[in-house]
Design brief:
Elements lengths: L12 H13 L5 H9 L20 E4 L2 E3 L2 H12 L4 E7 L5 H7 L2 E8 L2 H13 L5 E5 L12 E6 L8 H5 L1 E11 L5 E9 L2 E10 L12
Parallel strand pairs: 3-4, 3-6, 4-5, 6-7
Antiparallel strand pairs: 1-2, 7-8, 8-9
Helix pairs in contact: 1-2
The structure holds S-adenosyl-L-homocysteine.
Length: about 220
């Protein structure tokens, strides 16, 4: 990542360090992930008017009725996905502003990310470029069908909640690969960790969460 996005005042390194300290208190203990939260400039992923709140442990609006995920959730999902080893290829469904994508890019060879709202994807791509990140490939598409051309994936992470786990995502996991996905109706969702085994899938509930719903089709606005 380029190092020119240090920020001052409410976006300074001290402010970022405090966010990481808060995540430690909440049970995040992977040092590489905490370090990645400390060094990733979350304020460039939100509107300038909200920059001063970028290092609060909270979801914030990013336009198009969507939100940037809460840092704790990003850290928790990343921790569950990588489990202290770097991955080859990861698929992210729901690029949004691209913050989770940039965190993931620090823990795998290549990130593939799909977003159904074109306006969000265009802005996210600008941020990847600005940060000088080269291992992210993105597409304007419906993530319900995954990204078959680049499957299978070591890891898949989903940032919006479907009612049930899309079959295509299960099929696009390598043996041993992990899928992190919130599932359920709005207001009452479980964050699941699903691992593909030699003869099926193992499922574990990580947390109770609240995500925007996973929708079908694409939006060209
Ligand atoms: N990690 C992102 C989360 C954004 S919110 C961030 O921190 O910014 C979830 C995103 O999932 C939204 O941008 C929404 O448009 C997208 N989304 C919802 N359903 C989708 C689908 N079927 N395919 C691709 N993206 C989807």
């Amino acid at each position: 990542m380029n190092s020119e996005h240090h920020g001052i005042g409410m976006t300074s390194q001290r402010t970022r360090d405090r966010l990481a300290d808060k995540l430690v208190e909440m049970g995040i203990n992977s040092e590489p992930i905490l370090e990645s939260i400390r060094k990733t400039p979350r304020h460039i992923f939100v509107d300038e008017a909200l920059a001063s709140r970028a290092y609060e442990n909270t979801a914030l609006p990013i336009g198009f009725s969507q939100t940037i995920s809460q840092p704790y959730i990003v850290a928790k999902m990343t921790e569950a996905l990588i489990q202290d080893r770097n991955l080859q290829n990861v698929l992210e469904v729901g690029t949004g502003c691209g913050y989770q994508t940039v965190i993931l890019s620090q823990f795998c060879q290549q990130v593939y990310t799909v977003e159904r709202i074109n306006g969000l994807l265009i802005k996210a791509r600008e941020r990847f470029h600005k940060l000088g990140i080269r291992n992210i490939r993105s597409k304007h598409a419906d993530g319900n069908i995954g990204w078959p051309n680049y499957a299978p994936f070591d890891g898949i992470i989903v940032a919006a909640a479907p009612i049930g786990v899309p079959e295509a995502l299960l099929e696009q996991l390598t043996i041993g690969g992990r899928l992190i996905i919130p599932v359920g109706k709005s207001g009452k969702q479980d964050l699941l960790l699903i691992t593909r085994t030699d003869d099926g899938y193992e499922e574990q509930t990580i947390d109770a969460v609240s995500f925007v719903p996973m929708l079908g089709g694409i939006d060209t606005s």
